[in-house]
Amino acid sequence: MKISSFGLSTAEIREELAPLRSDFSIAICRAKNPFNIGAIIRTAHSFLAKEIFLIGSEPYYERAAMGMQKYENIVEHPDEATFLAAVAGRHLIGVERDHARQTLWESPFPSGLVFLFGSENDGLSPELLVACHDVIAIPMYGINHSYPVAIAAGMIMCEWARRKDPRARA
User: Which parts of the sequence belong to the tRNA/rRNA methyltransferase SpoU type domain (predicted)?
Assistant: First the structure.
């Protein structure tokens, strides 16, 4: 569903989008490439994620977000501890190949979950891995070790929509 932005203020567009928001959130922890963070914000907007948590002080590239950051609920946390306190009680699913307990295809997606993505070099921090209810991997073929984080986030959100969003079947 597309909301026409013609003649509406940013606040009015955000108000129109609020009841359409999906039942998942995205958290990006210390991603080093500002373009990747911006691309994830843009993709999260396309799936109307409930909110986007940015953990750490790394900047994002607004041009990569294509202006979508102004319509999103972006919540910044200086570190893992403040993020974990803010999402206490929510189901956390880390996306991390090296520490995966199961694949994307096997993992249930409970209501209100938060998908966590780590930095391109270091993945998720040990503190976040311990806090995750599940850690999943996206199946890969070939010799490459990992997907670019922005691509992985897009695949995860697409699978969430395929399973959970009745609008995806329309």
Answer: 25-157
Phi, psi of 92, rounded to the nearest 5 degrees:
-105, 130
> What digits encode the pLDDT tens for the residues 137-160?
999 998 988 899 999 999 999 999
End-to-end Cα distance, the chain: 10
Collapsing DSSP to helix, strand or coil, 136 comes out as: strand
CATH 3.40.1280.10 fits 22-169, yes or no: yes
pLDDT at 1 over 60: no
Whether residue 54 has pLDDT greater than 90? yes
DSSP H helical segments within the chain, as ranges?
Answer: 10-17, 34-46, 62-65, 80-86, 126-131, 149-164
